[in-house]
């Protein structure tokens, strides 16, 4: 949104990507201006002081921490076997590891991030998605953020319920104990603090799509390839 609170569409965001690159060269003031113009998010801090590090955002002022022991992800909607998955339940499902660049729509990128967790197709198979299913809706336990994918997108092997990152658990600031990773799309599709998954009959626009961002957020066709993660 702009300073008056009006939504800023993704075309405007993409037009600002060049400014994001300039910010890497000329300093933090330009990048901070881009960040303020793009979205009303509350920064939680930087992983690294350099421009190439992660930047943590939340659409609410604060998100209560959940321990791995207490966390549950509910999976329901158009499924045969709705259930709530504890972290231990996720660990018993087939595990997938991928390494991929993480790209934010505002211009910053972190290369070669190692992720691990349950490929979303394996989770959908565990609950038995209905033949009427056409999309998957995701809810953050921050109580506000939502995202969605078509069923075809959700069945890619590079879409994970991520429980691990860089050889450790996903931290709270990175969206843990478990988050969504949609590796071939911009970071706003990779919902943090994953609390609920609902299989539905149509795509439901998410938090940022309601504010002008694209529903399909492919970084680029070169990143849309099937890398056959293990």
Structure description:
Strands 4-3-12-7-8 form a 5-stranded mixed β-sheet. Strands 5, 6, 9, 10 and 11 form a 5-stranded antiparallel β-sheet that branches. The chain folds into 2 domains: 49 residues, no CATH class; 153 residues, Sulfite Oxidase, Chain A, domain 2 (Alpha-Beta Complex). By secondary structure, it is an alpha+beta fold. A hairpin with a 5-residue loop joins strand 3 and strand 4. The radius of gyration is 17 Å and the shape is globular. The N terminus and C terminus are likely disordered. It is 20% helix and 30% strand. Helix 2 runs antiparallel to helix 3.
Supply the key terms.
230 residues; alpha+beta; Sulfite Oxidase, Chain A, domain 2; five-stranded antiparallel beta sheet; 30% strand; disordered N terminus; disordered C terminus
């Amino acid at each position: 949104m702009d300073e008056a609170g009006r939504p800023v569409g993704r075309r405007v965001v993409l037009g600002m990507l060049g400014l994001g690159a300039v910010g890497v060269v000329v300093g933090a003031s330009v990048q901070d201006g881009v960040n303020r113009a793009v979205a009303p998010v509350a920064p939680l801090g930087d992983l690294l002081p350099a421009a190439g590090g992660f930047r943590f955002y939340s659409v609410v002022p604060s998100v209560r921490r959940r321990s791995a022991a207490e966390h549950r992800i509910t999976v329901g909607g158009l499924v045969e076997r709705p259930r709530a998955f504890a972290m231990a339940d996720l660990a018993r499902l087939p595990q997938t590891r991928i390494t991929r660049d993480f790209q934010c729509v505002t211009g910053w990128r972190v290369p070669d991030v190692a992720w691990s967790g349950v490929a979303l197709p394996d989770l959908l198979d565990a609950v038995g998605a209905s033949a009427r299913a056409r999309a998957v809706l995701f809810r953050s336990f921050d109580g506000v953020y939502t995202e969605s994918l078509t069923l075809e997108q959700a069945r890619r092997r590079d879409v994970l319920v991520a429980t691990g990152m860089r050889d450790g658990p996903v931290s709270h600031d990175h969206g843990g104990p478990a988050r969504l990773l949609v590796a071939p799309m911009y970071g706003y599709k990779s919902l943090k603090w994953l609390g609920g998954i609902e299989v539905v009959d149509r795509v439901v626009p998410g938090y940022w799509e309601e504010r002008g961002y694209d529903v399909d957020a492919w970084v680029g066709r070169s990143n849309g390839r099937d890398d056959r993660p293990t």
